[in-house]
Write a structure and sequence with these properties.
The protein is mainly alpha-helical and 461 residues long. It has helices at residues 2-5, 12-37, 44-51, 60-66, 80-83, 85-98, 103-130, 134-146, 148-153, 160-180, 186-199, 204-215, 222-276, 281-299, 320-331, 357-376, 381-399, 417-428, 431-460. Helix 7 (103-130) runs antiparallel to helix 8, helix 10 (160-180) runs parallel beside helix 12 and helix 16 crosses helix 18.
Length: 461
């Protein structure tokens, strides 16, 4: 733990500057919502859900830390509510001492911690695993956090910055094992899987990919496969089932019953009012049916494979090409000025175009460097591990369409592969071209920092 989380002498200046930047970014959220979220309230869930707006990010963590409940989707985030129990206890103590709800400050602290160590793990990957010098590693780490939705994730009260820090930790550990030709131990695999899958279930698969690349054939040894892979996966899924049955389902049933009763009472009241106005009953019923159909259509953001169950989150109708250009590799890196950080479930169109051509030129430039980096590092086992993480997300989002309507909010789960690949490109270059490209990347990262940070400030104020 000390080796992983201790800040080394060569990292202290980078860590100090990054710490100040991350504190400043999170201060934007604290200042914006201080007056609204700090008073102690009995209806915290509605308060946070209806008043916090930052793209498609959910403020569920504020509610869980304020009044602990299994508020997350337990099949996608099986253990996240339990991970938030200690912050909840801390908030209870601070609320008792100060008389205000301190969830804003606690979440900001979590975000700052995870952002700082995500940056440090990226720096270590580039310097120790890829083998770059300090200057190149700092520039690519700066470029990484200049990406729009890495920056946005670092201030959002959601799970993405936590997931990104854990995924980079897994990559760093696996990279060390690959470099030293040592397998990941069973204990390391189990701990990494429980933490990573506990926060976001699909990311647990990436831990198994890391173990596969690190251990090779030893991954398939019966003892390792059963104890380090099958048993933890089964326990996580069983925990999700029990959590849903005991903590979520009873509340859902009560909420659904109350919602239906309220809707029925309103419908009956409207029906009687329109009858008094002389409208015939058949016309009223037809009008109500039409309103329900319109409401149902408005909730649909893309045609799913199946209308119900797990596959209801898929999307087979949204254009993959436009989504890749404008959202996956566009909005993830550069914020659109139009519909700035709006939510597709509220008022943002799924596809938004940039105003100027230079945005697409910059996007194409970064993608070309990414592809060139893949070619330069094509013989690196570690790069193929990082690409396997990215490939899994491509299958989930572009293939099946999970979350395709707001694919950019998942940026933190995969975009680290871009600076890692560019790192292999820099490593393969001669000294003079490497210095020129590093200088150009520094200018790009500073430009993205100025552009994205200023838009983030504009959004909050």
């Amino acid at each position: 733990m000390k080796a992983l989380f201790g800040i080394r002498p060569g990292e202290r200046l980078l860590a100090a500057v990054a710490l100040l930047v991350f504190i400043a970014l999170n201060a934007l959220v604290v200042v914006k919502y201080y007056g609204l979220f700090t008073p102690v309230s009995d209806n915290t869930w509605q308060l946070f859900i209806h008043n916090f707006h930052l793209s498609g990010f959910d403020p569920i963590t504020y509610a869980v830390i304020t009044d602990w409940t299994a508020g997350y989707n337990v099949y996608r985030h099986p253990l996240l509510a339990f991970f938030m129990f200690l912050p909840y206890l801390l908030n209870c103590g601070l609320t008792w001492l100060t008389g205000i709800n301190c969830a804003l400050f606690i979440v900001a602290g979590i975000n700052v911690f995870c952002s700082l160590y995500a940056l440090l793990f990226m720096y270590r990957i580039l310097s120790e695993i890829v083998g770059l010098g300090r200057a190149c590693s700092v520039v690519l780490s700066t470029l990484f956090f200049s990406f729009a939705y890495v920056m946005a994730s670092s201030v959002a009260p959601d799970h993405f910055i936590i997931s990104m820090m854990l995924l980079l930790l897994v990559l760093y550990l696996a990279g060390c094992h690959i470099k030293e030709h040592k397998p990941m131990t069973m204990k390391e695999t189990i701990v990494c899987f429980v933490l990573t899958a506990g926060v976001s279930l699909n990311n647990g698969l990436k831990v198994f990919l890391a173990a596969l690349f690190s251990n090779g054939r030893r991954f398939f040894r019966p003892r390792y496969l059963i104890l380090a892979v099958l048993v933890p996966a089964g326990l996580i899924w069983t925990t999700s089932e029990v959590e849903y049955a005991k903590l979520v389902w009873p509340k859902e049933q009560a909420a659904n019953a109350a919602r239906k009763a309220k809707a029925a009472a309103k419908q009956k009241k409207d029906f009687q009012m329109q009858l008094k106005q002389g409208v015939d009953s058949a016309t009223i019923i037809a009008k109500q049916k039409k309103q329900r159909m319109v409401s149902h259509r408005l909730k649909k953001l893309g045609k799913p494979i199946e209308p119900n169950g797990f596959l209801s989150w898929t999307d087979i109708s949204t254009s993959r090409w436009q989504s890749a250009v404008e959202n996956l590799f566009g909005e993830s890196i550069q914020l659109h000025r139009d519909h700035l950080l709006e939510d597709t479930l509220r008022n943002r169109p799924i596809i938004v175009h940039y105003r100027h051509a230079w945005h697409y030129v910059l996007e194409a430039f970064i993608m070309l460097l990414f592809l060139a980096g893949i070619w330069a590092g094509r013989r690196s086992k570690f790069l193929w591990l990082a690409l396997s993480f990215f490939g899994l997300d491509l299958i989930i989002h572009l293939g099946l369409g999970f979350g395709l309507n707001e694919v950019y909010i998942m940026t933190a789960h995969w975009i680290y592969v871009i600076p890692i690949a560019i790192g292999f490109l820099l490593k393969a270059m001669r000294p003079l071209p490497r210095r020129c490209l590093t200088s150009l990347l520094l200018l790009v990262s500073l430009g993205l920092w100025c552009c994205n940070a200023s838009l983030l400030v504009r959004f909050f104020f």
